């Protein structure tokens, strides 16, 4: 089993969730709910992996909180 870290954002205009895997070209999708987004992300990644293991263009490191005064 392979695992990838997805970044999830919510569009304020549509309310849709947008998910993507940093550095994995083509690994992105959107959905109205988080459950639907999870299923969509799995489907996209499975489809992309049919072409072989990806050469990731970057590595997810983490997130940081930035305070601006």
Short overview:
With 69 residues, the protein is α+β, with helices and mostly antiparallel strands.
Explain this structure.
The protein has one helix at 34-49, and strands spanning 7-10, 17-20, 28-31. Helices cover 23% and strands 17% of the residues. Strand 1 (7-10) and strand 2 (17-20) form a beta hairpin. The protein has a single domain, classed as Double Stranded RNA Binding Domain (2-Layer Sandwich), CATH 3.30.160.250. Strands 1-2-3 form a 3-stranded antiparallel beta sheet, covered by helices on one side.
Layout of helices and strands:
Layout: E1 7-10, E2 17-20, E3 28-31, H1 34-49
Antiparallel strand pairs: 1-2, 2-3
CATH fold-level assignment: Double Stranded RNA Binding Domain
Stretches with pLDDT under 50, minimum 5 residues = none
Principal-axes shape call: flat
CATH class category? Alpha Beta
| Strand order in the sheet with the most strands | 1-2-3
How many separate structural domains?
A: 1
Backbone CA Rg: 14 Å
Give the biggest beta sheet.
3 strands, antiparallel
- What is the terminal-to-terminal distance? 44 Å
The portion of residues assigned to helices is: 10-25%
CATH architecture field: 2-Layer Sandwich
Integer average pLDDT: 94
Strand content: 15-25%
Helix count equals: 1
Run of helices and strands: EEEH
Compute the number of strand runs.
Answer: 3
Structural class estimated from helices and strands: alpha+beta
